Every structure is written in C-alpha cells, then in structure tokens.
C-alpha cells in the first residue's frame, strides 16, 4: 500500500459536517440515552392505563378501599365488573350504550367521507367560477370552535324535531368533520397526476366514472386515514353526545361519565367500562392501518 | 378513419396576451401520419390537446371528418391518446388498462377480451396482461399505453412525445415499430415531438411550429430540400444547416474571395446582405471560397465534421461542414469552402423568407 496520501487531521476535519441533516438527526436520536428517555416516557405514559386495566379486574370492595398497586401484594381477581358492564339489562349496564356508540359512529364517518369525496373532487378537478374562494371559505370554517355552534345547532335541531335523536348527532359530527375532510381529500386528489384524469376523459369516462373507477382506488390511503381519525374522534367524543344525545341514545362515553357522575355511585365499574370502550378504536386502528401503504401510485407514470 | 382539419384554430391561455396556438390551418388526410414538431413552447402539444378536447379552442374550428368537434367533450370525439408519461391507471392490470375504454363504452366482456388479446399480440404484451404497471419496464409501459390506444380502434391516434421517456436505443427501435404499426392499422395519426429526427423518420408529412404559428407543412424530403424560411432551415437537419449572412455583390453573393452566382431577379428584392444556407454535407473543400478556421474536428469514421469559425468583418459565424473522414483538415488550420451547386438556399435577410432561385 502506498503511504503518499497526506494524513487526515484527526477528528476536526472541515469536510466532516457534510452529512445531511436527516442522517444527523437519526444518528442523534438513535443514541442509547435517547432510547432510554423514550422508554421512560413510554412507561410513564402507560402506567395509568395499566393501573386502570388492573383495577378493572379487582372486586368492588378492593377498588373502593385500596389503590390498584395493592393488587401485587394482595391479588384478588374477578370478572364481575365486566359482567355487569356488558349486561344488556340492569342499572349500570353499558352494553346498550355501546351499541348506541356504533349507531352514532358509523353514519358519522360515512356521511362526511362521502360528501367530502364528492366536494373535493369538484374543487380539485372541475373548473368552475369561484372555486378557490369556495375552497378557502370551507377551510376557514375550521376556525369556528365547536362550542360556539352548539346552541345554534341545538335550536335548529329542536325546530327540525330531531333533537335528542341519533340523526342530530350524525348531522353534528358530519358538520364538524367536513372542513378538515374536504381539505385533506382535496390535497390528496390534487396530487394525482393530471394526465391520469385526462387519459380517463379521452377513454370516454365522465366525472362519475373518473371519480369511482380511477380516483377512489388511488385515494384509499387518504380515505382510510380520514376514516380512522373521524372514527376515533366520534367514538371518544363526549361533548357532542352530552349536548345532543337524548337519555336513550347516549353514546358510551356519556354513560361512562355518568357512572362516576353526579348521581352515579358505580364508579368501581368505570375502569371495566373504559376498557370495553377502548377495545373498539384499537381494533379499528389495527385493522385499517394496512391501508396506510405508500406507493399506490407507483408505476402509472414514468419516473 | 377520418381526416382532421384545423380551421384557424386558436388557443389563448387565460391571462396571456399572446396565443399559444395562433390561427392554425392544417388539414390531415385520412390515414396520414402527421408529425408536429418544434422547439419547446411552440404550441405543438397545445395543438394536440385542442384536438383531444383537453384544451379549449378560443377561435376557429376543429373538424374530425366532416364533424365539427370544437366544443365536443373528449369522450365523444372517438380519439385515443398516448401520453408522454403514459398515464396508465396504476391500480389496474395491463388488461384492465387496455380494456378500460371499451368497458366504459359497454362492450361485451368477451369482445373486450378478444380485442385486448389481439392488441397484446401485436405489441408482444401477452405475457404481461395480468401484471400491474409498476411491475413493468419503461418500454413495456410505453407499449401498454400504445395498446390502450389500439384497442379502441379510434378514428384518430394522438401521441404526445411517447418516446421521450425511453432510453436512446429503445427509442430508435420503438420509433420504427410505431411507424410500421401505424401504416398497418391505417389510422390517422397526429404525433408530437421536439426531436426533428423522429419527425423526419416517422411522418408522412411534418408540420413545423414556432411561437404558436405554423411555419411549414411538407413531406420530410421536401422539408429538408426546400425549407420555406430561415427557422425551418435551421431546425430541420442534424447537424444544422449553416446560415450565413453574406454581402450581396454584382452578379451574386460574395462567398469569401469568390462569388456565388445568383440571378439578378432574385437579388432585386433583398438589401445589402442576404442569408445563405448550406447544409454541412453540401460544403466542399476548395482552393477559394469561404475562409474557415477549424476549431474542432469530429471524426466519425467514414465522415468527419468540422466545426469552424468564419471571420468576416467584425462578426464571427460558426460553420459546420462534412468532409472525408480519411483525411480531414487539421485542427487550427484555415481551409476554404465552396457550396455545392444547386444546394444553396437563399433567404431574405430581414423577413427570413425563402428567395426562390432557378439554380
């Protein structure tokens, strides 16, 4: 080996910082102490949930007298809480409200998703007067806080005679979701190359055909993303359910809060109820996350 | 099959003050392969998109056959288009991509299948029908895009630079395939390219555009031998034609220390100078003529190209000439050139238009 290359000055070579910022960040973040910090955070974050899980299996007396951590010194396990919560009859039965939540959540996801798809197609790909103004106006509606709209909406629902019905909650949730949904889907639609739509037009497709045969399959990730967000949002919502739900068709969140609420004395059921309510979003998230795949557009266009 | 007619078709983009396509008058015969060529931004793609219905026509008309399609939406024009980036539907298989238009038209399933098979056979795609576009190579995607057009059996094929994304070797190969396919199918075709070699080799006729204005429509041969103006002369042919601004004298054009004879009538219209065009292969080494100092010699084996400079007065003009490859002049030397008789093009120095001569 030749030794003619001049020795590189150790450590502080001026050429060293030519590493891309992303690589640098990844390097720094994957250092052991950084991982440790992340683990500590994760554990701290999970402890309350873990405590809830432990509590949900403890007998009523134990819950009401000692903290969940005593479980480890004095383990008492029972399924009684879950039995009560999941019963369809009885004073503290949550099952009917569990069903209510489904009845509320499914249309409250489907309605804004459908409307937003149609609206965002029109805004993205149909040239009409005032299109940009309309788009900005719709997005600007995001600024209005939900709380401001509650009383006017309630008055409107009373006038329409649907106050306290499921329909009022469907409408309320859809209304609140639409601006963000249209914004999100519009941006996804704009990213689809113009040539694809032009090719479909030349192939003889009208707007409906273009939307359903060409664009929708490509929009699956965006729709899944929005669907998950909206599902979680509506499922976990307390405010809208509390304001618009009648006594019979309250969602599970309202029923849960009533367990420990003003008149409730069944707060030992709270933890079991909360876990029942967590299961659904968890399943939805895990089953839909496979749609978050990249590269659906790959191959249609060169490069 | 049908003819295509542009009748003073004009496209003015909103907010622009100069039309992208300015009063285009063009008639394309039934079954003809017409190539629209020009530098980027000349309006060739816009012209094609106007015919496809993807671009509004702000003035004039466009006819397919005898039918005025100026305001007809693309789906009702019975045309098929091949896009520069192919625009295949990424979520459909090759077969579905090719059959999409037929499916929309409500063609029976077995008929679609038969026609897709037929097209796949022509394009050598039979083994790939079940694949998605992302599992294909660039050349295969290009063929699928062609197949999508063929399956339709449309009245007109529109192709917007379909070869520009292929590598050089594949491009040459595909060029001949497309041309022969078009002859076989006999479908009227409008083909857009910025590559004048493609234009010359593929088209029955070539239309040269510049700044939205049609410069000349002719057969490739005629375009090469008889350019109508300075722009066409410089654009068609590779290496480009030498366009030299030379002084006019008694009896002809001053060609260095000799005179290139031009009849008096032809010179009458022009002023002190004239633009003289000679193709590189029509330059001959001689004792007298244009003194050119040789800057670069490109030896290609059989031929050599000389890239030199003509110093005349205060202005330098680049000159390209083809010479015998076995004994090219040395770099740095000064040689003299004479144009071949009968292969000289004269253009008006001001208007750039061709001056007809009998010689």
UniProtKB/TrEMBL annotation, chain A:
Listed transmembrane segments: 33-54, 102-126, 133-158, 170-189, 210-235, 266-288
GO cellular component: plasma membrane
Membrane topology per record: Multi-pass membrane protein
Domain ABC transmembrane type-1 per the UniProt entry, residue ranges: 98-288
Keywords: Cell membrane, Membrane, Transmembrane, Transmembrane helix, Transport
Pfam families xrefs: BPD_transp_1
GO biological process per UniProt: transmembrane transport
Location of the protein in the cell: Cell membrane
Chief place of localization: membrane
Family the UniProt entry places it in: Belongs to the binding-protein-dependent transport system permease family.
The name this protein goes by in its record: Alpha-glucoside transport system permease protein
Organism for this UniProt entry: Kineococcus xinjiangensis
Lineage: Bacteria, Bacillati, Actinomycetota, Actinomycetes, Kineosporiales
Automatic annotation (TrEMBL), chain B:
Ranges for domain ABC transporter: 4-236
GO process terms (BP): carbohydrate transport
InterPro entries named in the record: AAA+_ATPase, ABC_transporter-like_ATP-bd, ABC_transporter-like_CS, ABC_transpr_MalK-like, ABC_transpr_MalK/UgpC-like, Mo/tungstate-bd_C_term_dom, NA-bd_OB-fold, OB_MalK-like
Stored Pfam families: ABC_tran (PF00005), OB_MalK (PF17912), TOBE (PF03459)
Gene Ontology CC: ATP-binding cassette (ABC) transporter complex, substrate-binding subunit-containing
Keyword Ribosomal protein appears in the UniProt entry: no
Family annotation (PROSITE patterns): ABC_TRANSPORTER_1, ABC_TRANSPORTER_2
Molecular function GO terms recorded: ABC-type transporter activity; ATP binding; ATP hydrolysis activity
Keyword ATP-binding on entry: yes
Organism domain of life: Bacteria
Keywords (A to Z) from UniProt: ATP-binding, Nucleotide-binding, Sugar transport, Transport
UniProt cross-references to CDD domains, sorted A to Z: ABC_MalK_N
Alphabetical list of NCBIfam families matching this protein: PRK11650.1
Name the UniProt record assigns to this protein: Multiple sugar transport system ATP-binding protein
Source species: Kineococcus xinjiangensis
């Amino acid at each position: 080996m030749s030794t003619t290359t001049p020795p590189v000055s150790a450590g502080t070579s001026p050429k060293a910082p030519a590493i891309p910022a992303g690589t640098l960040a990844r390097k720094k973040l994957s250092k052991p102490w950084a991982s440790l910090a992340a683990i500590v955070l994760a554990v701290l974050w999970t402890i309350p949930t873990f405590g809830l899980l432990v509590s949900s299996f403890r007998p009523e007396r134990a819950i009401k007298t000692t903290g969940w951590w005593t479980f480890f010194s004095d383990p008492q396990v029972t399924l009684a809480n879950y039995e009560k919560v999941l019963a369809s009859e009885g004073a503290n039965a949550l099952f009917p409200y569990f069903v209510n939540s489904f009845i509320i959540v499914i249309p409250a996801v489907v309605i804004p998703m459908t409307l937003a798809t149609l609206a965002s197609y029109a805004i993205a790909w149909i040239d009409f007067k005032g299109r940009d103004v309309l788009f900005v106006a719709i997005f600007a509606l995001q600024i209005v806080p939900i709380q401001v709209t509650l009383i006017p909406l309630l008055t409107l629902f009373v006038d329409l005679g649907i106050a306290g019905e499921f329909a009022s909650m469907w409408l309320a949730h859809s209304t609140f979701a639409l601006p963000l949904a249209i914004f999100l889907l519009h941006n996804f639609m704009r990213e689809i190359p113009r040539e694809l739509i032009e090719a479909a037009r030349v192939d003889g497709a009208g707007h409906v055909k273009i939307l359903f045969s060409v664009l929708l399959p490509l929009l699956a990730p965006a729709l899944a993303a929005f669907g998950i967000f909206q599902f979680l949002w509506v499922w976990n919502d307390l405010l809208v359910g509390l304001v618009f739900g009648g006594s019979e068709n309250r969602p599970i969140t309202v029923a849960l809060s009533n367990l420990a609420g003003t008149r409730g004395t069944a707060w030992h059921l709270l933890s079991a109820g909360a876990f029942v309510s967590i299961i659904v979003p968890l399943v939805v998230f895990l089953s839909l996350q496979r749609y978050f795949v990249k590269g659906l557009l790959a191959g249609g266009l060169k490069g | 099959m049908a003819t295509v007619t542009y009748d003073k078709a004009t496209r003015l983009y909103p907010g622009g003050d100069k039309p992208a396509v300015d009063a285009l008058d063009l008639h394309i015969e039934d079954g003809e392969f017409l190539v629209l060529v020009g530098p980027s931004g000349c309006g060739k793609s816009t012209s094609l998109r106007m015919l496809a219905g993807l671009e509004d026509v702000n003035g004039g008309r466009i006819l397919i056959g005898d039918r005025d399609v100026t305001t007809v939406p693309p789906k009702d024009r019975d045309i098929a288009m091949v896009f520069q980036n192919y625009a295949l539907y990424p979520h459909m298989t090759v077969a579905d991509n090719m059959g999409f238009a037929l499916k929309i038209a409500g063609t029976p399933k077995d008929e679609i299948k038969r026609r897709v098979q037929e097209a796949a056979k022509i394009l050598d795609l039979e083994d790939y029908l079940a694949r998605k576009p992302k599992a294909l190579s660039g050349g295969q995607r290009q063929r699928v895009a062609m197949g999508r057009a063929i399956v339709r059996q449309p009245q007109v094929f529109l192709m917007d630079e379909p070869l520009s994304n292929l590598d050089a070797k594949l491009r040459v190969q595909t060029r001949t395939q497309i041309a022969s396919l078009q002859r076989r199918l006999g479908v009227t075709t409008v083909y857009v390219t910025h590559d004048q070699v493609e234009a010359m080799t593929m088209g029955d006729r070539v239309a040269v555009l510049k700044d939205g204005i049609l410069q000349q429509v002719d057969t490739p041969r005629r375009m090469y031998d008889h350019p109508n103006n300075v722009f066409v002369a410089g654009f068609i042919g590779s290496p480009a034609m030498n366009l030299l601004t030379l002084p006019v004298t008694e009896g002809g054009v001053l060609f260095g220390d000799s005179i290139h004879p031009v009849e008096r009538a032809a010179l009458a219209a022009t002023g002190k100078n004239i633009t003289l065009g000679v193709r590189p292969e029509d330059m001959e080494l001689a004792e007298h003529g244009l003194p050119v100092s040789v800057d670069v010699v490109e030896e290609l084996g059989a031929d050599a190209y000389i890239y030199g400079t003509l110093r005349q007065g205060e202005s330098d003009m680049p000159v390209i000439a083809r010479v015998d490859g076995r004994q090219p002049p040395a770099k740095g030397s000064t040689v003299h050139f004479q144009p071949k008789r009968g292969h000289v093009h004269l253009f008006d120095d001001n208007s750039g238009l061709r001056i007809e001569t009998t010689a």
